[in-house]
Amino acid sequence: MKKELFKSLIALKQSEIPFDVIERDLELPINRKKIITIPGVRRCGKSTMMEIAINHLVKDGVSKERILWLGFDDERLTDLSTDEFDKIISTYMEFFPHIPMKDVYMFFDEIQLVKNWEYFVLRLYKSYCKNIFVCGSNATMLSTELASVLRGYPLEFPTTTLSFKEFCRFSGISTTDVLEQDKARLRMAFKEYNSSSSFPEIVLTNNKSEQLNLLPGYFNTMILKDLVEHYNTKNIEVVKYFTKRILANLSKPTSINAIYNDIKSQGLKVGKNDLYLWANYLCNIFLFSRISKYTKSIIKEQQSLDKYYCMDNGIRNAVLLPQSNDEGKLLENNVFLHLNRNRQPYEKITYFKENCECDFVVQHDDLVTQLIQVTWTMADPATKEREINGLLEAAKVTGCANLTIVTFDEESTITTDGYTIHTVPAWKWMLK
Question: What is the pLDDT of residues 41-86, one digit of tens each?
């Protein structure tokens, strides 16, 4: 019975190739001879990344028959046991007896739904096939756990929500050969990008009310499935309130202790250590990223307050009522997402705070390579002075002279105190 089902599922997926999908900036490697895992926040397009990889394979001359795709979220596979994994391979081999297994590309979506799947994948990798791609829901297996269960074999290729360049591509807006009229279109597109969601499904949904209905569902699933169920966490309402507090404090140093005192003052019962754990969990499920204060002392870094950034502005706006002064905060969040999306493994992002503040310090190992301030506008002289002073103090402390201020739409070069500061519009900076 299962063999016939496997045949049907294999044939069905092959019939869909090539997939009708929009390209992403990130490309999965297709011949690294590794187990490729695709971590990322729920609904960011992990399965689509595998479909894009398959399209590239076919374009490069790989026949459909050499591609095995199975999605284990099919309700007919809910009772699949590990000893039935071998039937998948034997079924495929019966289908295509002329194809050596070493020449097959295997794509497994939501394989984590089957208990002890990792032993099958490892055996498959060691014995038969060197090109295996795995992705799935955070609720079942987080990326930090994947590396452990697969014993160091996988290569991770994290997937995020859409970059601004991808947002334009999904929206049908050209980002090449920018003419004057295109600049106006890009400015408007960026304003929309900054204030709304960059989840692929949301961007492709033209109906605003449908968008607004989808986003709270994303948030609730992340909290209930990826955090509460995965970590067996209690106090769901307190978890939600805690998450909202971090969202409200976006881009500012956040005191978990202060949030604890606030929760306690409301008569809610929760341990302080639980809040620190929840903060870790929220980062583990990719809802937040956090950065520490720039310092050369490991001890001081551990003692400083972290800043938190949300993986999608639309999620934040769906959970909190947008405020009139949110544009700058959301811009800083998007600047961080851009930096983090393009960050190399050897790079680190921190913030600077002494007498003045600098939003982002980018380090290549111990060498500071960039200092970046973010503000919606510098029309107010006091704002301009604050941003410049923050950069100058950070430059003198870190020894970095690569100074940038990212704004919504201002562009200029400022020379002061022996330093050159480049002010750039966010839409242009994010298209580089």
Answer: 999 999 999 999 999 999 999 999 999 999 988 888 878 887 788 8
User: pLDDT tens for residues 282-336?
Assistant: 999 999 999 999 998 777 777 899 999 999 999 999 999 777 678 999 999 999 9
The position carrying tokens 């019966």 is: 94
Residues β-bridged to residue 306: 254
Count of C-beta atoms within a 10 Å radius of residue 309 = 21
Cα→Cα distances 123→148, 153, 212, Å: 15, 12, 44
Report if residue 394 sits inside a domain: yes
Please say which residue of 288, 322, 356 terminates a domain: 322
Q: Please tell me whether residues 8 and 150 are part of one structural domain.
A: yes
CB within 8 Å of 58: residues ≥ 6 apart? 17, 18, 64, 67
CA torsion angle for 28, 34, 38, 39 (degrees, to 10)? -140
Q: Looking at residue 177, what is its pLDDT?
A: 67
Are the beta carbons of 332 and 359 closer than 8 angstroms?
yes
Closest CA to 228 of 295, 311, 161, 285: 285
46 with 99, same domain: the answer is yes
Number of structural domains in the chain: 3
Backbone angles phi, psi at 15, to 5 degrees: -70, -20
What mean pLDDT is predicted for residues 212-231?
Answer: 92
